[in-house]
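dude i think i finally got it to work??
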Amino acid sequence: MKLFLMLAGVSGFLFVALGAFGAHALNDKLEAMGYKATFETGVQYHMVHTLALVAVAILMSHLSTTGLLTASGWAFIVGIILFSGSLYTLSLTGIRIFGAITPLGGVAFLAGWILLVVAAVMD
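look at this
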């Protein structure tokens, strides 16, 4: 539980910092490259799944299915790294191959949500 709260705190700090950096310091560069919306999508999914990670941490003290919740938390972390990380990298470098990684992060997000459902049903 504490680990996921700590990781959510770090992740929350990063999404706020990256969102502000993208909106202010990188705004002109992202617009010129045509990747502003891509970067913003990365920030949005990063934010939502950081909050999901907080929920997982809280639920671990209320449900008995902690193994499934742990798997869900790790899936959300992998999703943030692969999905949002690939979008950030694509936006900043323009290297399109990073876009091929994004769906893997999406699958990790989906797995995290399914594991959360299963944890609730199995409890």
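Residues 2-122 form one domain.
im so relieved honestly
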